[in-house]
């Protein structure tokens, strides 16, 4: 076996370069630089060399050790990056693939119905408008022709919000969005305003928070015929039936004149009460021609501009269409209820695909 440092250097660096994996490389390291390693043994001979020999062989032996440990280090690096490349190539994950798990969330019937209504009214040229849920007294009441002494204020079971400054309320209906819209954009106006409203009331058909959708049209020459056609078209699209019959009953709202409550006809099908036909009637909407005082309160000339407005409960529409009977369950957050009545979030309501999901 040679002890010539230069020969050993060539031998070891060649063997190291050929190491196939990390464990082969580690075995070579031990054989060369370990306690009983060949290079270590050579280093140990240094002490017994004569000064002349040490001068000649010393630097070669040190160079040998440097070369071997350098080669091991470089090879380790090379093996590591080869291993990384291999893993990157074999463990690739295509993040563009859809999840293989069934999506678990679902769309709440209230959101579903709001989306359906938005889709129907967008097709009729209505935009969606919004307003604050904490509303000032003026927008919620006064501008809607409900002065302070008006009994309608008591009828609404209003939640008042404590604080200094203007009296604030949790809006009792979506009608204040009529006012905000007329104040912020010039007519002609065609909007719907879906959202949460609040009244201090609770039983099987009333919850302190519920949802309404408001409709408002302001233009020239608008009359009750436009109102009736719009409601009929909307209800036919919503219930997906052509035999929807409406009955407009004279009624009273401070902000409309004349006012009409709208009943929709129902009939019995397979023992169930369904919307359509006219065996009986149920109330679904409040509506009317926007009161000239309301138009004037928004800074418009009521001799020039007329319009109609309507409002209805979104939760109630959902119950009628999808057959739930207890409103309180809507807001219990019970996952079993959501699983049963919820909608797949990938099924977006469209008029062409059927808004009914
Ligand atoms: N704001 C009324 C309510 O909450 C509904 C309504 C809206 C009536 C618009 C007429 C016109 O009962």
Q: In summary, what is this structure?
A:
The protein has 357 residues and is an alpha+beta fold.
3D architecture notes:
With 357 residues, the protein is of the alpha+beta class. The chain folds into 2 domains: 5-90; 109-341, Bira Bifunctional Protein, Domain 2 (BirA Bifunctional Protein, domain 2), CATH 3.30.930. It has 12 helices and 11 strands. Strand 8 and strand 9 (272-275) form a beta hairpin. The termini are far apart. The mean pLDDT is 91.
List the helices and strands and how they pair.
Elements: H1 5-18, H2 22-33, H3 38-44, H4 51-90, H5 109-123, E1 127-128, E2 134-136, H6 137-140, H7 151-155, E3 160-161, E4 168-170, H8 176-184, E5 189-198, E6 209-219, H9 224-239, E7 246-253, E8 256-269, E9 272-275, E10 280-290, H10 292-297, E11 306-313, H11 314-322, H12 335-341
Parallel strand pairs: 1-5
Antiparallel strand pairs: 2-4, 3-4, 5-6, 6-11, 7-8, 8-9, 8-10, 10-11
The structure holds phenylalanine.
């Amino acid at each position: 076996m040679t002890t010539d440092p230069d020969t050993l250097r060539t031998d070891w660096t060649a063997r190291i370069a050929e190491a196939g994996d990390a464990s082969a490389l580690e075995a070579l390291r031990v054989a060369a630089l370990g306690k009983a390693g060949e290079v270590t043994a050579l280093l140990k001979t240094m002490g017994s060399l004569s000064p002349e020999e040490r001068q000649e062989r010393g630097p070669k032996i040190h160079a040998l050790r440097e070369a071997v440990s350098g080669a091991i280090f470089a090879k380790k690096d090379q093996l590591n990056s080869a291993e990384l490349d291999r893993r990157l190539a074999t463990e690739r994950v295509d993040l563009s693939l859809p999840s293989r798990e069934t999506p678990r969330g679902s769309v709440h019937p209230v959101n579903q119905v709001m989306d359906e209504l938005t889709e129907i009214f967008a097709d009729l040229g209505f935009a969606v408008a919004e307003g604050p849920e904490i509303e000032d007294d003026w927008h919620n009441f006064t501008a809607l022709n409900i002065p302070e002494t008006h009994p309608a204020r008591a009828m609404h079971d209003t939640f008042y919000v404590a604080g200094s400054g203007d009296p604030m309320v949790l809006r009792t209906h979506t009608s204040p969005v009529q006012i905000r819209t007329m104040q912020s954009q010039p007519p002609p106006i065609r909007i719907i305003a879906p959202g949460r409203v609040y009244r201090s009331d609770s039983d099987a058909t009333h919850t302190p928070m519920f949802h309404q959708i408001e409709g408002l049209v302001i233009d020239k020459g608008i009359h009750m015929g436009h109102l009736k056609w719009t409601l009929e078209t909307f209800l036919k699209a919503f219930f997906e039936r052509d035999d929807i019959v409406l009955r407009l009953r004279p009624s009273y709202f401070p902000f409309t004149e004349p006012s009409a409550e709208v009943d929709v006809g129902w009939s019995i099908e397979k023992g169930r009460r369904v919307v359509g036909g006219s065996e009986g009637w149920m109330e679904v909407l409040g509506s009317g021609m926007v009161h000239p005082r309301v138009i004037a309160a928004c800074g418009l000339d009521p001799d020039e501009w007329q319009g109609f407005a309507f409002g209805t409960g979104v939760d109630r529409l959902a119950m009628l269409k999808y057959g739930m009977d207890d409103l309180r369950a809507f807001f219990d957050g019970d996952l079993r209820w959501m699983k049963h009545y919820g909608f797949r979030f990938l099924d977006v309501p469209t008029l062409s695909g059927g808004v009914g999901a």
